[in-house]
Design a protein that fits this description.
heterodimer; A: about 800 residues; alpha/beta; 5-stranded mixed β-sheet; about 50% helix; B: TIM Barrel; Alpha-Beta Plaits; 9-stranded mixed β-sheet; two-stranded antiparallel sheet; about 30% helix
């Protein structure tokens, strides 16, 4: 299916809906928290799971529901359009600390009314004080872990201040069974247990909790049906009346019974998705392979003449606008690590089917078109591109979307994704069904548990080796003494010290993760567990390892380029060329290169990662393989730990605690994001970047790897630009690179946007695995995007043509 | 194996042949075109340049040079290198604290350049690209060129060469079997005008083109004409170029390349005057009209990218 040449009629509605979202102010939404608090006060004596389920059901019963004008797909997790939903049972204290500053903080500010502040102080805080999950972590974290996290050698609070997220419900199953079908399944399982037997009571109680949560959703669906009918009766607009009556008819079928049409299926998916946030606010609740599970409904409608492709596109676009509404609420510090409000709601197109064959269908193109129509920062559009199986026309559609400058889709190499899933213990035939999750994580709908729990600052590790365990910023011994670097006579000895320091830090993270796993067991999610069949079958919550495939948490490594370039510089200058002594290097680093300009010059001129050079690329392969393997050798109660390279925006705060490095980076400055080469050091163009990046064993980083590249939009304008991009994407796949993200935005536009933010409200950029409004990012991140080397040579001017 | 004089290697070029290509610029050219956009490619020897806006006038280069080849010329406010004394050790470049000093050109073996070309083979494969040898004038280093192209051919890498045509036939003929696409420049059909604009007459260039036209290889022959406003873009010259090509049998198309001033920065760095400093670039429409004239004659004409 080609891009529609003229603006289709449905775009009037889409643009109207879009305007409402773009112009809405992110607002703290505490209505759900108030209902939850009231509910919890009345359920003190019940099991935790049932308390959560009852609270969820109360939210479904009492929350404000709104059908906004022009909407065809309806629903909302909270009360307001761009709401940050507070999840008081997980963490209330962060809002308490920031109640008077959250509306003006630099990263992701949220408006909150004086009335809501008062309700928070008088109702929410007094009840939850001492009871939230985050407080348990704060109370139980051992001092050595606290030291490491306070000094940003590791960052581990991210999933403690909100739910873990990073999961994908089994929508195919929900759509074909309906909530009533799910309840029937719960009852069937329940009938297999007996209170007369020991240990069966918790199972029965849990299944009752699941049923209670499921009933909540039935109530919510019925309320939307009634609201649609009410509005239909009120309106004088015949067209809108008909639309509202259709919405009511949709809710007469779903969520209770199986979906029959495309409209019913899409509405069901959105309603369930929005409801998840009501149970637990978190990032990365994914819609997964929407082009696959919606296709049977689309095809049936088309075959029966019930819908046209344009009408289906309009519905998809409406759902896309809804997905752009929610804003991730998190504390100020976490917001600095991942800013831009994004909820990481990942939708996926493409890939292969259960037989291992091409899965691309008409909807795959329409899913991409929906992002091109709406041009919003959410949902996170991903493609699984299978080089061998998917058609060039699909790749072209991807390239055309990239060329719009939206930063979408996040392009995933299907074969590598499949291998990553296998590394998580998933059987090959099920790994065929993987889906991207969050920014670049890997997931499997309705079958797997596991999420990223910690970040490790690789730049700190270099520092700890060179200063014998001393953390310069804090003056504390945060590492171990791996020997006097000036006594190392070979690179191998230096590399060994780096590895011992890595082992030490990984050991600390493993310990912290074990404590967190226990604490996090106390935040069950019976509603989410409805869409994980094995949770029903085993009467075990998602959180407690009820999924078919349990999996250990993921550890994210940040500052990759800084780490590689620093080790490579030591290798080249100190050991190979011997143009600089270790002693003098360390002196220069301690002085932040002040009065050591010659050393700084040498460090900056040492070979850098990102240029397809053997020196640094060998360091990359050696050290990153070691990291991935050591992580994957570590155990947790839910399985082996995973590793990933997806910093979101963590490289900004993590840089603030790291002194000068042998890479030539000055003290306390931003680190490099993801797998990207450090801005300004990748001087050999896009192919060299991809070659260097491919030296890292992507498959081993089963939590995903992230590569950001920026392409000048003016160089992508003609037909050849898109074809070149297709070739580049295919090449990246052949090289085994997992993910690549292209910003097609020129520098001038970004500089203008920084100066006149009001004129660039719509400007989207790819930050680090996600897309955000440029003007909403912090200045450091903005600067970094501006500074990143533009790949001018990609489709440049005629070279040497005139001589 | 031959050694060659290389200016630089550019990757993922999209305008010097099909697909995504690696362009190897060789050093040394017999022509001195007034509009040359890569003046640093003209001499076979190394050129040293100073990026003026980066130069901190710290005299590190003067002090570093073991041959005392660099001195400061106050009259022009520039650091000047006496190439007669320079041993090409490049310590001045390595030590320059601001990265202002640049050396243009290096010597490399065929194997070294082949290794660099082969690095991007996956990109050639997916784009239908390959390698393009440009210059300078590639046929100046005919033996090196032949070995390099043969090495590419053995690895299945598509080859293209860009030439000004000013070379001895003995240098050209042995290389032709290894060239897939030959881009052949015709600047002016009038011998005197050609000499005035490029420093050499066009007799040998036209002869060579006619002789290449009679060979089996290269597989594809494309004539290129840089269109320099006011210097060679008159209709008379355009028609003469067209007529010359029409009489040949194997010219697949004529490409009209737009004039640009992107080389200006390098002239300044090299401390050389840019002859056409006042000349503005032509318009794309203008170039399309000229292409239409060639099409009238019965040729396939294309306008190069702006």
């Amino acid at each position: 299916m080609a891009t529609t040449p003229q603006t289709p009629a449905y775009m009037d509605r889409i643009n109207t809906l879009r305007e409402r979202v773009v112009n809405a102010t992110p607002t703290m939404d505490i209505e759900n928290a108030l209902i939850l608090t009231e509910s919890f006060k009345s359920t003190e004596a019940l099991p935790r799971e049932m308390r959560k389920a009852k609270a969820f059901k109360d939210v479904c019963r009492k929350k404000t529901i709104t059908i906004w004008d022009h909407e065809l797909i309806v629903g909302c997790s909270g009360k307001v359009t761009r709401g940050g939903v507070l999840c008081a049972d997980v963490c209330w204290s962060v809002l308490d600390k920031e109640l008077d500053t959250i509306s003006t903080r630099p990263y992701d500010p949220f408006y909150i009314s004086e009335e809501d502040k008062q309700l928070f102080r008088e109702v929410i805080k007094p009840y939850w004080l001492g009871r939230s999950n985050f407080e348990k972590w704060e109370a139980q974290a051992p001092p050595d872990i606290v030291d490491l996290k306070e000094n940003a050698v590791i960052y581990i609070d991210r999933k403690a201040v909100r739910g873990p997220g990073e999961l994908t419900p089994n929508y195919a199953e929900l759509l074909s069974e309906g909530i009533e079908g799910i309840i029937a399944h719960i009852e069937k399982r329940k009938s297999e247990y007996s209170l007369a037997k020991p240990n069966h009571y918790p199972r029965i109680a849990y299944l009752d909790a699941m049923r209670t949560a499921a009933e909540g959703m039935l109530i919510l669906g019925e309320r939307y049906r009634e609201e649609a009918l009410r509005l239909a009766a009120e309106t004088d607009d015949a067209r809108r009346k008909a639309e509202l009556e259709t919405i009511a008819a949709v809710f007469a079928q779903i969520p209770a019974r199986p979906a029959r049409t495309f409209h019913e299926a899409l509405q069901f998916v959105y309603l369930y998705h929005a409801s998840i946030f009501m149970e637990q606010n978190a990032a990365s609740y994914n819609l997964g392979r929407i082009d696959q599970y919606l296709y049977p409904y689309y095809q049936a409608d088309i075959d029966a003449g019930r819908i046209t492709p344009e009408e289906a596109q309009e519905l998809l676009d409406c759902a896309w606008i809804k997905l752009a509404e929610p804003c991730l609420f998190q504390d100020e510090v976490t917001a600095e690590y991942a800013n831009g409000y994004t909820m990481f709601q990942n939708v996926c197109a493409g890939g292969i089917n259960a037989n291992g064959q091409d899965a691309v269908n008409d909807l795959s193109y329409m899913v991409i078109q929906a992002s091109m129509d709406t041009m919003l920062y959410q949902p996170s559009l991903s493609v699984r591109y299978n080089l061998a199986k998917n058609p060039d026309s699909f790749l072209r559609k991807c390239a055309e979307c990239i060329n719009t400058g939206s930063g979408f889709p996040a392009f995933h190499n299907d074969e590598v994704g499949i291998r990553m899933m296998q590394n998580k213990g998933v059987h090959l035939h099920e790994a065929y069904d993987w889906n991207p999750c969050g920014c670049v994580e890997t997931n499997l709908s309705g079958r797997i548990r596991g999420y990223v729990s910690a970040d490790v600052n690789l730049a700190s590790i270099v520092e700890l080796v060179l200063f014998r365990g001393l953390h310069r910023k804090s003056g504390k011994m945060l590492g171990i003494d791996t020997g006097d670097p000036t006594q190392f006579t070979t690179y191998a000895a230096f590399a060994e010290a780096v590895k011992r320091q890595i082992d030490h830090i990984i050991g600390k993270v493993v310990a912290a993760n074990n404590i967190l796993d226990e604490i996090w067991d106390d935040r069950p999610v019976p509603f989410i567990s409805l869409s994980f069949r094995n949770c029903i079958d085993t009467a075990t919550d998602y959180t407690h390892g009820g999924t078919k495939y349990p999996c250990g948490n993921g550890i994210i490594y940040d500052g990759v380029a800084d780490f590689i370039n620093s080790i490579a510089a030591v290798k080249e200058l100190v050991f190979e060329k011997q143009s600089l002594s270790m002693e003098r290097l360390i002196q220069a680093l301690a002085a932040d290169f002040v009065s050591y300009e010659d050393v700084h010059h040498k460090c900056l001129n040492a070979e850098k990662y990102g240029n397809d050079l053997e020196g640094p690329d060998q360091v990359a392969a050696e050290m990153l393989s070691y990291l991935a393997i050591q992580t994957n050798n570590s155990d947790s109660k839910y399985g082996k730990l995973m590793s990933g390279i997806l910093p979101v925006t963590a490289h900004v705060p993590l840089g603030k605690v790291v002194g000068a490095l042998p890479s030539g980076r000055r003290a306390w400055t931003t680190l490099t994001d993801g797998l990207s080469p450090t801005g300004g050091t990748d001087v050999n163009g896009a192919s060299a970047v991809l070659k260097s990046v491919s030296k890292i064993p992507h498959d081993l980083f089963a939590s995903g790897t992230l590569l950001n590249m920026k392409l000048s939009p003016e160089l992508m304008q003609n037909e050849r630009g898109v074809i070149n991009l297709m070739a580049l994407l295919k090449s990246a796949c052949s090289l085994g690179v997992f993910h690549a993200q292209f910003n097609v935005v020129d520098k001038e536009t970004l500089v203008q946007a920084q100066q006149y933010p009001d004129d660039y409200k719509d400007l989207l950029v790819r930050v680090a695995g996600y897309t955000a409004y440029f003007i909403e990012l912090c200045p450091e991140v903005q600067d970094e995007i501006i500074d990143r080397t533009v790949q001018e040579t990609f489709s440049g001017t005629i070279a040497g043509g005139c001589c | 194996m031959q050694n060659g004089r290389i200016l630089r290697i550019e990757k993922l070029s999209s305008f010097d042949g099909d697909g995504l290509r690696t362009v190897v610029f060789l050093k040394g050219c017999p022509l001195r075109c007034q509009w040359c956009s890569t003046p640093e490619s003209q001499a076979s020897a190394t050129d040293f340049g100073v990026v003026r806006r980066k130069c901190g006038q710290c005299f590190t280069c003067v002090q570093t040079c073991p041959e005392n080849a660099i001195h400061y010329n106050a009259d022009i406010d520039r650091f000047v290198t006496d190439m007669a004394r320079c041993s090409d050790c490049r310590q001045c470049v390595a030590e320059c604290p601001n990265g202002a000093r640049t050396a243009y050109g290096y010597t490399a073996t065929v194997a070294e350049i082949l290794k660099e070309i082969a690095k991007d083979s996956i990109f050639y494969y997916h784009s239908g690209g390959g390698v393009t040898i440009s210059g300078g004038e590639p046929f100046v280093q005919a033996d090196f060129l032949k070995d390099l192209l043969r090495g590419c051919l053995l690895q299945g890498i598509n080859t293209a060469v860009e030439t000004c045509g000013q070379a001895a036939w003995d240098h050209i003929a042995p290389v032709l079997p290894y060239i897939d696409t030959l881009f052949y420049d015709l600047k002016h059909l009038d011998d005197d005008a050609h000499r005035r604009l490029t420093g050499v007459g066009n007799r040998r260039i036209l002869e060579n083109l006619a002789r290449i036209d009679a060979q089996q290889r290269p597989q594809r022959l494309i004539v290129r004409m840089p269109v320099i406003p006011g210097l060679n873009d008159g209709e008379e010259n355009l028609r003469a170029v067209g007529e010359f090509c029409r009489k040949l049998t194997r010219v697949a198309e004529i490409q009209l390349l737009p004039y640009h001033r992107l080389g200006m920065e390098t002239y300044n760095t090299l401390c050389r005057p840019y002859p056409l400093a006042q000349l503005a670039s032509g318009s794309e429409d203008e170039l399309r009209r000229k292409a239409a004239i060639l099409e009238e004659i019965g040729l396939t004409a294309r306008v190069g990218s702006f």
